[in-house]
Amino acid sequence: SQTIHQWPATLVQPVGSPLSLECTVEGTSNPNLYWYRQAAGRGLQLLFYSVGIGQISSEVPQNLSASRPQDRQFILSSKKLLLSDSGFYLCAWSVGGPGDFGPGTRLTVL
Amino acid sequence: AQSVAQPEDQVNVAEGNPLTVKCTYSVSGNPYLFWYVQYPNRGLQFLLKYITGDNLVKGSYGFEAEFNKSQTSFHLKKPSALVSDSALYFCAVRDMVMAGGSYIPTFGRGTSLIVHP
C-alpha cells in the first residue's frame, strides 16, 4: 500500500531564515505530487505540483520554491522566510485518482 | 472556471442524530467529486468519491454522499453522528487535466462539524 511521509511535523523559524520541508511517497511510481498551504485552519491553497522528476509548476507567486530531485521526493524551500509564511503545509500525491495527503508540517515564523 | 462551494462554515448536530454537510459544484464537463476529513493538526484523509454510476456513494466511517446532477450538489451524510466525527470536512472537484491524465483538485473552504454528546 502507498504511504506518504512529511517532516518535520512542527517547525519554529525566525524571519529571514531558510526553510526545507521534505515529502516522500512509498508504494507507488511516478506519482503526481502537490504542496498545499492551509492558513488559519481552513481553506487549502495549492502552491506547487509536479508530474515528474524536475518538473515543477507554481500556482501562486510567493516566497517559496519546490524541487523534485527523485521520483518520490518533493521538497518545499525558501531562502528567507517571511512572517506570512506561517501555516500548515500539506504534501499530497495522486496517480489518476484522489491519492492521499501527508500528515502535515506546522510552520511558525517568528 | 471550476469551483466548489461549502455554504456552511460550521454544522452542529447532537450525537445519534443524522448529519448533512453541504457541497455544491460548478464544472464544465462531468464532475469527479470527493470528500476528505481533517482532524486537528492532521493531514486530510480521503472519505469517498463519485466518478460515475450510482448516485449514492458509500465511504469510510459510515459516511455516504449523494450526487445530484440537477442541483449540482454532492452532500455528505451520515445516519447517526458520533462525537468522534467532529472534524473539518472538505469537498473537492476534479479540476483541469494535467499531462499524464491526472488532475488538480479544487477544494472547498471546509465545514467544521461539531457533534455534541
**How confident overall, as mean pLDDT of chain A?**
89
Supply Rg of chain A: 13 Å
Summing up helix and strand content along with how strands pair, one would put the structural category of chain B as mainly beta
Major protein interface: A-B, 27 and 24 residues
The general outline of chain B is globular
Number of helical regions of chain B: 0
| Number of DSSP-assigned strands of chain B | 12
**Poorly predicted ranges of chain A:** none
| Number of DSSP E strands of chain A | 11
Q: How confident is the prediction overall: mean pLDDT of chain B?
A: 89
**What is the terminal-to-terminal distance of chain A?**
38 Å
Described by strand count, sense and barrel closure, the largest sheet of chain A is: 7 strands, mixed
Q: Could you give a short account of the major beta sheet of chain B?
A: 6 strands, mixed
Radius of gyration of chain B: 14 Å
Which terms summarize this structure?
heterodimer, A: 110 residues, mainly beta, seven-stranded mixed sheet, four-stranded antiparallel sheet, 11 strands, B: 117 residues, six-stranded mixed sheet, 12 strands, 54% strand
Describe this protein's structure.
The complex is a heterodimer of chains A (about 110) and B (about 120). By secondary structure, chain A is mainly β. Helix content of chain A is about 0%, strand content about 60%. Chain A has strands spanning about 5, 10-15, 20-25, 30-40, 45-50, 55-60, 65-70, 75-80, 85-95, 100, 105-110. In chain A, the strands form two sheets. In chain A, strands 2, 4, 5, 6, 9, 10 and 11 form a seven-stranded mixed sheet that branches. The mean pLDDT of chain A is about 90. In chain B, the strands form three sheets. In chain B, strands 2, 5, 6, 10, 11 and 12 form a six-stranded mixed sheet that branches. Chain B has a four-stranded antiparallel sheet with strand order 3-9-8-7, with no helix packed on it. In chain B, strands 1-4 form a two-stranded antiparallel sheet. Chain B has about 120 residues and is an all-beta fold. Chain B contains no helices and twelve strands. Chain B is globular and about 40 Å long. The chains are: A mainly beta (about 110), B mainly beta (about 120).
